[in-house]
């Protein structure tokens, strides 16, 4: 049996935004249940994100280590960033983030996997790309600040990332999902069966 997520929207009888931050906000919706009762649902309103699993010619993935204050951990991650501009093309955003965080470019791009990071409490949608044919970017490195100023970069085998995720040693959502998705693709129909980089994304519609 083939299963598939489907769009649906239950009636919202009232809404409020009790908090607005720099990039995200919190919304409270009064939602009508199928039995006619009404309940409040609080959730983070998020612009969406892109992440990039960049694979070099030796089968290693570009990863970076960054402090994440909410979880009080320094996490290994793959390059990622927000979709700051409404309707922004996610591929263009991913290419920008790969340049800014790893100072490399890629010639071959595919959609690896699309996920909602925490659909019970946030509307954040993330598109994870697979980027191959990696080479150094031209020009000066992008100037970083705050947590990014302390980032550490490395190249690690896909096998080590999968092992670390399954062992409970690596916890970043995009890194774990990306590594496991790529391993599944390699074990299944192969990279050529992945969706093209400009595949539609109903969760975050974009212009070509």
UniProtKB/TrEMBL annotation:
The record's annotation in InterPro entries points to: NUDIX_hydrolase-like_dom_sf (IPR015797), NUDIX_hydrolase_dom (IPR000086)
Alphabetized, the UniProt keywords read:
Hydrolase
Q: What name has this protein been given in UniProt?
A: NUDIX hydrolase
Q: Name one GO molecular function term.
A: hydrolase activity
Matching entries from Pfam families are given as:
NUDIX
- Which organism does this record belong to? Streptomyces niphimycinicus
**CDD domains per UniProt:** NUDIX_ADPRase_Rv1700
Region of interest (Disordered), ranges: 1-22
Q: Which residues form the Nudix hydrolase domain?
A: 44-178
């Amino acid at each position: 049996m083939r299963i598939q997520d489907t769009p649906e929207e239950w009636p919202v009888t009232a809404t409020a935004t009790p908090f607005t931050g720099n990039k995200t906000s919190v919304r409270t919706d009064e939602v009508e249940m199928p039995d006619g009762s009404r309940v409040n649902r609080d959730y983070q309103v998020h612009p969406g994100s892109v992440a990039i699993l960049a694979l070099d010619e030796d089968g290693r993935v570009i990863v970076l280590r960054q402090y994440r204050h909410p979880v009080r951990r320094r996490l290994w991650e793959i390059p990622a960033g927000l979709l700051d501009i409404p309707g922004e093309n996610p591929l263009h955003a991913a290419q920008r983030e790969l340049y800014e965080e790893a100072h490399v470019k890629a010639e071959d791009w595919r959609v690896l996997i699309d996920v909602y990071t925490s659909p019970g409490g946030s509307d954040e949608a993330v598109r994870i790309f697979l980027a191959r044919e990696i080479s150094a970017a031209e020009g000066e490195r992008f100037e970083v600040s705050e947590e990014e100023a302390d980032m550490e970069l490395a190249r690690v085998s896909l096998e080590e990332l999968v092992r670390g995720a399954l062992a409970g040693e690596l916890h970043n959502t995009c890194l774990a999902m990306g590594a496991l998705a790529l391993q599944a693709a390699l074990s299944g129909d192969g990279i050529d069966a992945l969706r093209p980089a400009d595949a539609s994304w109903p969760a975050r519609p974009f212009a070509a």
